[in-house]
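User: Sorry, what's this?
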Amino acid sequence: MSLTSADIARIANLARLELKPLESERMLTQINGFFDLVEKMRAVDTSGLQPLAHPVATLQDIALRLREDRVSEPNQREANQRSAPAVEHGLFLVPKVIE
């Protein structure tokens, strides 16, 4: 997949960016370079390989140090919501911003 100058212009317009022609050409080269890299990665046969939980696992056996999943703080929802201008059913109410 490769983009054209028109694609870059459309993306810039959607992002509300004003690109000069030199910037547009540079972006086109960089983005197409990224897509080339993705295509090379997709071409590698990874069937039969197990995903890694951590990149260091390729070098040494590691054990993930996970903490015990337990409540460590008391529920202070009511105290935290006292200063809120509007609360309903334990939730903060905010003004509508999208019509």
